[in-house]
Specification:
Length: about 70
């Protein structure tokens, strides 16, 4: 992926998230979050009401993210 900073600024977050390399990075981040969530819920129970946010940086220009509320939220 070789996008200019200007191109990154102009594209909507959803379009950037659909790029294969970004989608793959978000999937990896979400898998890591799921493992961390499981450990925290085992230690502290669901009283934490965790919301998770997978974030991918595209250079210094943009951030792309996916958020998911915890169970029962």
């Amino acid at each position: 992926m070789n996008l200019s900073g200007e191109s990154l600024r102009e594209q909507p977050r959803e379009a950037l998230a659909a790029l294969p390399v970004v989608a793959s990075a978000l999937d990896t981040a979400e898998a890591q979050l799921a493992r961390h969530r499981l450990g925290l819920e085992q230690a502290y129970g669901e009283r934490l009401r965790l919301h998770t946010h997978a974030v991918v940086a595209l250079g210094f220009e943009r951030l792309v993210w996916r958020s998911s509320p915890g169970p029962g939220a």
